[in-house]
Specification:
39% of the residues lie in helices and 21% in strands. With 274 residues, it is an alpha/beta fold. Strands 1-2-3-4-5-8-9-12 form an 8-stranded parallel beta barrel, surrounded by 4 helices. The chain is globular, with a radius of gyration of 17 Å.
Amino acid sequence: MKLGNACWGYREMSLDNYIRATAGLGLKHIELSCENDYAYLSGDSTASEIEAVKRKLSEYGLLCEAVAAGNDFSVPDYHRELARVKRAIDVCARLEAAYLRVFAGFCKEEEITHNIWRQVVGSLQAAGSYAHSRGVILAVEVHGGITPAGDGRHFHRFGSLTTTGERLSRLISETACPAVRALYDPANFLAYGGVQPQAEYPLIEAQTAYVHLKDYQLSDGYYECAACGDGQVNWQAVMTQVSAFQGTVYIEYEQAEDVIFGTRRSLEFIKRFI
């Protein structure tokens, strides 16, 4: 198992500072963002900009195996989302990154219809075919949706297309593309799907390309982001299962205001199991 740094918690930090922070944490693997609202890179990034990023990563001894895009294939304008993902695939190929994190979509699970399901499968097939042609693997993340709770502090988290192992596995199987796999995030199974991750992982284990690790703690009945070990995830069970995983496991501490502290705390905790 290799350890890396996931980009979401660093969304308020410049790329240079994120790279320095990752190296300062003693990590060798970094996930970069592309074609989303906080992206460091986009399909419009020039060849010189891409090369500058690669040089900066090399300077700090970092490897970028994974890029994270933002998309929703369940919306009516899914063609726009597909074009966005294809631009991110191109950036991946130019960076020589192996994986692109994508989402299936954020349709509430009780609103998933046959037509929406087929639309998402078709979008993943089209994106997967293009990714395969560019030497990139798509990793569909375990993720639900989020809405403000109304108190100004908390959020409702709800299940969606990929918040059970059965549904995510079926989605990937029906896509039937070797370039479409899963991104396992145990805490998201818990907070969005309301299911225990150790019960879901065996359903997607053979399809998993890479992993995000974080935690959620309960605050006034709502799940809030936490460092690994500070929340509700059963880490003994989770780490026993992923101990045989040969890919990269990315720490994804989500709170931007203390992201370096939270990432370091998470790393120290996870290293107890390695």
